[in-house]
Amino acid sequence: MEVILHIGMGKTGTSSIQAALTQSAPALREQGVEYLGMWFDMIDPAFRGLAGQPNFFRSGPEEMQAHARRFAAFLAERRRTGGCTRFILSNEGIYGQVRTVLPFLEELRRHVPLRLVAYVRDPRDWLPSAYSQWSIFHKNYEGPVRPFAEMARQQVKVYSGFQLWGEAAHDILTVRPFLKQKNVVEDFAEVLGISLTPPANRRQARVEADQAALRIFYNTRLPGNTLPWVFDGAFKGLDLSATPVLEDVVDRMLDYRETDRIVSEARPLFDYLRTRFGIDFPPSETEIEPPPDAEALRRRLTEHLLQIVMNQADRIRALEEAVAALQAPTGKS
Fold first, then answer.
1. Is the same domain home to 257 and 318?
2. Domain range holding 115?
3. Which of 61, 180, 168 lies closest to 114, judged by CA?
4. Which of 27, 58, 127, 277 is the most buried (most CB within 10 A)?
5. Is residue 267 domain-shared with residue 301, that is, in the same domain?
6. What is the C-alpha separation between 228 and 220, in angstroms, rounded?
C-alpha cells in the first residue's frame, strides 16, 4: 500500500490536478488507485472543507500522531473493502504547515509507505499570479489592497517552505518544476505512473488586467478579508468578458470607409435610377465620414459616464429620502 500526499505549492496547477483526479476517479480505481479528495474528514468530520481545515492544523503533536493512526486504519479498511492499494490526497494547504504536520507524517510512515509530491514555479511568474490571487481576486487581509511590491516581498518568503520540507522529509519528497510548456496534470500522472485525463478548461486562470483593476477599486473600499464572490455578487449577472472593446466598436461599427465598395457592388440598382429617372450620385460629390479617433471617443465617453453617475447619485439620494419618509413614524393625532 502507498499513500501520496500532493502538497502544493499554491498557484502551481493544484486545481487542475484535483479536477483531473476527480473526473478520472473511476479510471483510477481500475488502476488500483483511489483519490481521497482534499480534506482529512475521514479522520474527523470537523476537518472537512475550508472552514474545517484549520481544526486539523490546530492539532498538537500528540493529536497529530493519533490522527495518523486513525488515517492509517481508515486506509487499511478502504484497501480491504475497495481493493485499491494506492491512495492520493491533494491539499496545497499542507505546504505551509511543515512543522505542524510533521508529527502526523512521521507517525503515518510507521504504518504505511508515504510519498510527498510538490510543485515549484518560477518566482517571476509565480509572484504576479500569487498577488493577483491573494490580493486582488481574494483579498485575504484587512484594509485596502496593498501595492504589488509590498506584498511580493512578503509572498516570496513562501519559497522558504522548500527548505523546511527538504530537511524534514527529503527521502520521501518529490519536487517538480511547474512549467508553462508542459501540462501539469500530465507531469503529475507521469511522476506517479498513472493515467489521468487533463480537464478541458484551465482552472483559476488569472483575471484580465481590466477586471483586476475593477476588483482593486471595489475590494480596496472594503475593510476586511474579501472573498471573490463578494465582488461577483455585487455585479451579479454582469459578464465583464462580454464588454465590447472600443477599438473594435470603432473598427466594425463606426468605420464607414467601405461605403463606396458596397455601393459599387450594388451598381445595377443605381444604374437603374440614373437611366430611368435621371438621378445619379457621383462618388466625388459625397465625402465619406472618417472613423472617430478611439482615444478621443474614450475621453468623451468617460465624460458622459461621469454625468450619468452624478445623475444616478441624485436619483438614488432622492429615492433614499422617499424611502426614509415612508419609514418615518407617523405622528399621533
1. no
2. 2-122+159-206
3. 168
4. 127
5. no
6. 13
Contacts of 202 by beta carbon, 8 Å cutoff, 6+ apart: 16
List pLDDT tens digits, range 263-284: 899 999 999 999 999 999 887 7
Query: Mapped to the 3 state alphabet, what secondary structure does the chain carry?
Result: CEEEEECCCCCCCHHHHHHHHHHCHHHHHHCCEEECCCCCCCCCHHHCHHHHHHHHHCCCHHHHHHHHHHHHHHHHHHHHHHCCCEEEEECHHHHHCHHHHHHHHHHHHCCCCEEEEEEEECHHHHHHHHHHHHHHHCECCCCCCCCHHHHHHHHHHHHHHHHHHHHHHCCCEEEEEECCCCCHHHHHHHHHCCCCCCCCCCCCCCCCHHHHHHHHHHHCCCCCCECHHHHHHHCCCCCHHHCCCHHHHHHHHCCCCCHHHHHHHCHHHHHHHHHHHCCCCCHHHCCCCCCCCHHHHHHHHHHHHHHHHHHHHHHHHHHHHHHHHHHCCCCCC
98 within some domain: yes
CB 101 within 8 A of CB 64: yes
Q: Domain for residue 105, yes or no? A: yes
For the question of whether the overall pTM of this predicted structure is more than 0.90, the answer is no
Q: How far apart (Å, rounded) are the C-alpha atoms in residues 129 and 234?
A: 24
Give the model confidence (pLDDT) of 208-258 as tens digits.
888 899 999 999 999 999 999 999 999 888 888 888 999 999 999 999 889
Say if residue 256 is in the same domain as residue 118: no
